[in-house]
Structure to design on (73 residues):
């Protein structure tokens, strides 16, 4: 029998998931483009930011799937 999740725990998990994806797929690539990669050529900027974005997106999706299989979310 599965335990029911409390409302506050569900909100905390949801906010954590939102925060992870907001930081890793929006803020981090933007910070890289305006910071360390600002002087790099446009193709290098695109390649690095898409690689970073794709890596963290894939990692997040994998983590969500693992958590779902374990019954954590």
């Amino acid at each position: 029998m599965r335990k029911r999740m409390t409302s506050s725990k569900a909100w905390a998990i949801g906010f954590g998931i939102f925060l992870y994806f907001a930081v890793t797929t929006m803020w981090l690539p933007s910070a890289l483009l305006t910071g360390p990669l600002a002087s790099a050529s446009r193709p290098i900027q695109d390649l690095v930011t898409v690689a970073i974005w794709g890596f963290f997106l894939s990692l997040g999706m994998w983590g969500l799937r693992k958590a779902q299989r374990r019954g954590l979310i």
